[in-house]
Design brief:
With 644 residues, the chain is mainly beta. The chain is built from 5 helices and 43 strands. It is rod-shaped. The two termini are 28 Å apart. Residues 294-343 have low confidence and may be disordered.
Length: 644
């Protein structure tokens, strides 16, 4: 359960005069159709609980997928849904999230039989039922299997690179000196040197850079991360000037280095030993630690992903004496509070892969040795916004994530956002169980991304002990898979209002129908008004349908039904009395039914046998006339209107 301010994204139902639902005999309410995730749905509420699923003393809430005739054979829709009830005192919502459910031909309805107990719902201080009014809601997020994927690999390369260049006739060099190409990590590089500096440092400093030749042909997903040292040798004293860095090389950033490597006055000072016989010696030590490149589209036109390789010079064996703890997470877990005490989180086991992003890491144990404290993904789209997933393999120590894997989401592309923007999102993080072929998912509360807070996540997503325990299947052969799913909360729900009006209108009237024996088809009274609606009495003198020729049939017809929509109906108590004109008594039959567009007429096809009617001593037919009396009371008016 979670308390949140944002209203449900997809559907709202306001109920007026809730207490009348029980009195009216309505066991369930079925909403109009609404759309979510390109599918059509209906929300179904049992005000007194669905007794078929042990929902007594509760409000039961369900979702039903509709419009399935247009879906392909064998269709299935994986959905995560949330039900809401509005707190009218604190102006926020109590939300209850369900597990991921698979809607399909044989199971098109899922829900919560015990969504909310009547005791909790009716407790005045909770604010859910105020002045006999309440508001429910639903949010549906369809899980698509179209995630962008990345793979982070750590492999042992063949060897290291170190090389030096002796650059002579240095004083004669004017602009740019460029080395021949050399290959490291399967990519080509060059050393670039500006003898008299460049840009703002021209005539002041020598500038030295490392240039990635291949990055000129990279697409926007490709990049290389390299650690490098650029050393200017002291040819007299045996030392050297050393500057080190670690940068990403890409199509947008092909060259990295130092615009002010050394002042020219220091370089040309003979006693320093850097310039000897008009020659300098430059040494480069280079290590490629990350390669990122796209992999082919998935079969069937899946999303474009990227492939990352993390290279490590010395492969060390992971210690064998690690302490492990087993995490037993059965599939029926509904809600748990994890180590992040500040937020209530939901843990769930599910088969469907993450909708938006997946990251495979190979040789996980080498990540900490590589010196990479966090991994930041490429940009991916979700809900019309751009995102990055950030993982701290050894935990984000700044947020007390030590001993854990920390995961975050950052919203990007902020320059295109309008002033004062904010994005409400519910995110879920995943880790893949490679032994059972399913995912452990941890769903967070709704978070508000805005200019002052563009990053949210879980500092203690998963402890290392839990993650590394072999039988949990999260880390197998030093490989693992993480994922993310983001659902945006839009305040654009379709809203309906259910009104229950109790009516006290009572109507009583008699009709004397003569020349009865000459009537061959039906007899229809004039219209009369009760409860603001028009009605007619309908009599079949020779019977109707299965009672034809055997019984007299008498009905009450609801004239306004033809103008009703599918959610409008009227409940009426009715007594139809056939008078005994001799003895003073009557034959009385009663019912209480809902009149609607699909049920405009209620009554009795076998009201009385014709033999009994025509028997003179019974007094029902006198001088070829009968007298019919109707007692009618409209007790409830049921209508649904759109909420503005």
């Amino acid at each position: 359960m979670e308390i949140r301010e944002a209203s449900p994204t997809h559907y709202l139902l306001k109920i007026e005069s809730f207490s009348l639902l029980s009195e009216s005999g309505i066991d369930k309410i079925e909403s109009n159709e609404f759309k979510a995730g390109d599918y059509k749905w209906k929300m179904i509420i049992y005000p007194n609980g669905n007794t078929h699923e042990n929902g007594s003393e509760h409000i039961s809430a369900y979702l039903s997928i509709s419009g399935t005739s247009s879906l392909p054979p064998g269709w299935e829709v994986n959905v995560i849904f949330t039900f809401f009830v509005f707190n009218q005192l604190t102006d926020n919502y109590l939300s209850v999230r369900g597990k991921m459910r698979r809607f399909q031909c044989i199971k098109s309805l899922w829900g919560l039989p015990k969504f909310l107990s009547h005791k909790t719902f009716k407790e005045a201080s909770n604010g859910y039922l105020v002045d006999d009014k309440c508001v429910f809601g639903a949010e549906i997020f369809v899980v698509q299997r179209q995630a962008i994927g990345e793979c982070l690999s750590i492999v042992k390369p063949n060897g290291s690179f170190k090389r030096e260049w002796k650059i002579c006739k240095f004083s004669n060099l004017d602009k740019l000196w460029l080395s021949e190409e050399f290959t490291v990590g399967g990519y080509k590089w060059q050393l670039k040197l500006y003898p008299k500096g460049e840009a703002d440092n021209k005539e002041c400093d020598i500038a030295i850079y490392l240039h990635s030749v291949d990055s000129n042909n990279f697409d926007h997903h490709q990049k290389l991360k390299a650690k490098y040292n650029i050393n200017l040798k002291n040819q007299k004293n045996g030392g050297h000037k050393k500057l080190s860095y670690c940068n990403w090389f890409s199509a947008a950033s092909r060259t990295w280095g130092y615009a002010s490597y050394m002042p020219l006055t220091q370089l040309h000072d003979k006693k320093n030993g850097y310039l000897v016989d008009d020659c300098i010696v430059v040494e480069v030590e280079l290590e490629v630690v990350l390669k990122q490149s796209p992999f082919p589209k998935r079969r069937g036109g899946g999303a474009q992903g990227v492939h990352l390789n993390l290279l490590r010079w010395n492969l060390e064996t992971c210690p064998s004496n690690m302490e492990y703890i087993d995490l037993h997470c059965p599939s029926n877990i509904e809600s748990v509070v994890l180590e992040d005490e500040a937020a209530e989180l939901m843990m769930e086991i599910r088969d469907a892969s993450p909708t938006h992003y997946s990251l495979k890491i190979e040789s996980f144990s080498l990540l900490s040795e590589s010196g990479i404290d966090k991994f930041e993904s490429n940009v991916f789209n979700a809900g019309g916004y751009k995102w990055k997933m950030i993982i701290y393999p050894n935990g984000n120590t700044r947020e007390n994530g030590s001993g854990h894997i920390s995961v975050y989401l950052a919203i990007t592309g902020l320059n295109s956002m309008r002033a004062g923007w904010e994005v409400n999102a519910i995110f879920t993080f995943f880790v893949f169980n490679q032994l059972r072929d399913n995912y452990l998912s941890v769903r967070g509360k709704m978070r508000r991304f805005q200019p002052m807070k563009t990053l949210w996540g879980l500092p203690k997503f998963l402890s290392h002990k839990t993650f590394k325990y072999p039988s949990n299947g999260y880390l197998v052969d030093d490989k693992c898979v993480f994922g993310a799913e983001i659902f945006i909360i839009h305040r654009q729900a379709i809203g309906e209002c259910l009104s229950m009006v109790k009516s006290n209108d009572l109507f009583k009237r008699q009709w004397k129908i003569c020349n009865f024996s000459k009537l061959r088809k039906d007899w229809l009274s004039e219209e009369f008004t009760v409860g603001g609606y028009n009605w007619k009495l309908l009599v079949y003198p020779q019977g109707n349908v299965t009672s034809k020729g055997c019984h007299i049939s008498i009905y009450l017809k609801f004239v306004n039904a033809k103008d009703f929509n599918q959610h409008q109906k009227v409940k009426a108590n009715c007594s139809i009395n056939l008078k005994d004109q001799i003895n003073g008594g009557c034959k009385k039959l009663s019912y209480c039914e809902w009149f609607s567009i699909t049920a405009p007429t209620w009554g009795f096809s076998g009201y009385m046998p014709l033999t009994q009617l025509y028997d003179e001593k019974n007094g029902y037919l006198v001088k070829d006339c009968i007298v019919v009396e109707v007692d009618l009371k409209v007790v409830f008016k049921h209508s649904v209107r759109n909420l503005s």
